[in-house]
What we know:
Strand content: over 45%
Order of helices and strands: EEEEEEEEEEEEE
Distance between the termini: 8 Å
Amino acid sequence: MHPRRAAGRRAGKGDAFVCPAARSAGTQVIRAKVAPAAHSACAVIRAHDTGSDAYRTTVCAGRIAVDIDQHGRTRTVAMSAIDPPAQPGAAGRSRAQPGAWHQIEIHTPGNGVTVTFDGDEVINRTRLPALGRGAVSLGSGPGPGQASFAEVETSSVG
């Protein structure tokens, strides 16, 4: 593994920050703290990003989605609600509250994606189209608003 770290970063719609990750076709591991700035904002992390193809993980208030951008088409391959179990004082509140920091970890082993959110595995999808070499990029979207990223660490194996 060749870990790379990036300092805090805020991204608005259309902004992107490409992490200085090894451009590897092997497994990529991305660890970051994310904080969408508003209910309409989502944090976006693209793995194996070639500019046109990528595994795209989108973290919004109440949900996480994984899409594949490939050959000019986008296909949602997994989605998960991220509302917490019933807890005293937390009824009806999403864990991804605007401005609140959350830990996300994304693994892309071969032809799959595993996503953990605040330590809980929320997506584990296998048998996806394998993507080639690409960087890791951070941004926001698809709606208006910004997302913040901190303590970003990327590594590649293979």
